[in-house]
Amino acid sequence: MSSTGKEPVAVVGVGQTRHAAARRDVSLAGLVREAALRALEDAGADWADIDAVVIGKAPDFFEGVMRPELYLADALGAVGKPMLRVHTAGSVGGSTALVAANLVAARVHRTVLTLAFEKQSESNAMWGLSLPVPFQQPLLAGAGGFFAPHVRAYMRRTGAPDHIGAVVACKDRRNALKNPYAHLHEEDITLEKVRSSPMLWDPIRYAETCPSSDGACAMVLTDRTGAGRAPGPAAWVHGGAMRSEPTLFAGKDAVSPRAGSDCAADVYRQAGITDPRREIDAVEMYVPFSWYEPMWLENLGFAEPGEGWRLTESGATALDGDLPVNPSGGVLSTNPIGASGMLRFAEAALQVRGRAGEHQVKDARTALGHAYGGGSQFFSMWLVGDRPPAG
Amino acid sequence: MTTGASATGALSAPLVVEFPFTRSLGPVQSAFLTGLRERTVLGVTAADGRTLVPPVEYDPVTAQELRTLVEVEPTGTVTTWTWNPAPRRGQPLARPFAWVLVRLDGADSALLHALDAPGGPASVRTGMRVRIRWAAERHGAITDIACFEPLDAGPADEDPPTAQPRPHDGEFADPVTGITAPARLDYTYTPGRAQSRFLAALRDRRTLGERCPACRKVYVPPRGACPTCGVATDEQVELGPAGTVTTFCVVNIKAKGLDIEVPYVYGHIALDGAGLALHGRIAGIPYDEVRMGLRVEPVWTEDSRYPDHYRPTGEPDADYESYKELL
């Protein structure tokens, strides 16, 4: 927005790998390369057009690459250029894109390649989440067990019926059938199959949890001039924000964290959005466990407190609803942790560029990408549109 | 676990983080490491014609994909070095050795490895001629090169051969496609004064929280400061012993490293007087009868630092309104 002196930021290239439980056919370098080349091709750009590289991945213990910026500089054409890494747990893919966008907005660089990745198959995230820290009581459950009590609290607070989580899981897995890059393609998924899958951490069932994936996602972000040269349409960044809060503190609302709603409010203010439900055409939100869809619908201002599940139940969040949520299939269908946030941001960009293929939301002109991480402690979001910001 | 306490009473203990990370190699590293197994050292031809050993998948200058493999010699020249007087666990040699960068004959870049130099540091110099000492058992790893050793001094020492790399298709029977890369980090963990006070009280089976002087909320376990107000907490408050189950889940799958029979209940427990919930296991009641609002108390075992679990007190359930702000 010129009124604030910022350079408008355009997403002109989006690329992602084929996601799978294990990509043993490629090294880490080969994995990130696959996503980066697709983003460059989409942008009609070459390595020489890139001024800086910003990458993100999940915490080091999740796959043990302590300094990927050293190891991956060759594969990402970063030699002789600035390269930096962002680190905010599961939200990192979103935060990474925002750091890259800010470099363009501030006119530090004109064109930035941003990329996030994870090879979950080469490590063990559950181990990474349960390090034996001395004196501390071990967490008595895995990631699902950590979040399941919050889901129960949501159900109690809102009176949501039991089947809402299954509705989300079924919808997202069906959307994934239209996304050739998605990890899970469950042709025969039904509501009944989700509801009869094993109960892992009551109230969360197996089919309501995200998979463990290998994959990467990349985007080329550029300024007004760069957007003018790009061969395809751009997605323009209208707002972007990050917020943090502790995992545990007296007064934390674990069902609807303050950091999440503050982050959304900041993005809407930047973008001039006053009624997100009506003004936003598609949403990619970070839903690793199905119940987080209605929870985030309330946290992000798409529904009044207590009403998120009704929006899901009504079918409004389906691909043909009036507020499609996770048209890509979401985290429930593809979860390379470090890349999961960027995949949300990238899908929002694909939607407003009209490049989402079979999972395109009709006439999507404004889309929100959302990520969260840690114990609901890091939030990052951006709002993109098919037109440059006014001003 | 060996634990200690400083003069201030703050505890510390070792924390070892160890994991065998795996790595898929991709085509170039796969050929390189499989080659080592077969006593063949492969490099890659870069865009500018240089031969890079060890090989890389992508050109360090142009970023283009590199796939043209070549074979170089098992002999080479030390380009620089440093002496390692006290080898650590996991290093290539147990006795003092030199870390060397070796440009193998036919290569234009150098490989990092160990040089076995029985003559000590005085026997090592830049420009010295060395050769690979192969490991007796080779599996397709950089350790298939046991180390380098000095080449017998001779005319070659003054005048290194100008060997040319030879083309190689990189094809081997039964190629190595992945490696295991064990990682180990040794930390000393110090939980700090506030948590040390908390742990000391736990030894007497008392739970001590700390109150924020600004917002008056009570933190447990205390962390020494209120993250909302940003001020130190120092007023200690004894909590419980009873509390209320604010929320919970029923765990039906075994968690890694935990020896608890499933199903069991993992709960959030707000001890009476606390500003936030702790977590713990709920037992002494059938798992499908646990509910939000259940009143519980800690059950200790002889040797446990924390309560083993919480069991119902038999009191009437707490009203939802009384704990809903703690969810």
Automatic annotation (TrEMBL), chain A:
What Pfam families does the entry give? Answer: Thiolase_C_1 (PF22691)
UniProt keywords (A-Z) are:
Transferase
Secretion signal, residue range per the UniProt entry: none
A GO molecular function annotation here is: acyltransferase activity, transferring groups other than amino-acyl groups
Q: InterPro entries annotated for this entry?
A: Thiolase, Thiolase-like, Thiolase_C_2
Query: What SUPFAM superfamilies is this protein classified in?
Result: Thiolase-like (SSF53901)
The chain positions of domain Thiolase C-terminal read 250-375
NCBIfam families per the UniProt record, alphabetical: PRK08313.1
Q: What is this protein called?
A: Acetyl-CoA acetyltransferase
Q: Which organism is the protein's source?
A: Streptomyces cacaoi
From TrEMBL, chain B:
ChsH2 rubredoxin-like zinc ribbon domain: from which residue to which, for each copy?
200-233
Please name the InterPro entries in this protein's record. ChsH2_C, ChsH2_Znr, NA-bd_OB-fold, Thioester_dehydratase-like
Query: Where do the segments described as Disordered lie?
Result: 153-175, 307-327
Record domain ChsH2 C-terminal OB-fold: where: 70-134, 237-300
* Pfam families (UniProt xref): OB_ChsH2_C, zf-ChsH2
Record key words, sorted? DNA-binding
MF-aspect GO terms: DNA binding
Q: Does the keyword Ribonucleoprotein feature in the UniProt annotation?
A: no
Q: What name appears for this protein in its UniProt entry?
A: DNA-binding protein
Organism name = Streptomyces cacaoi
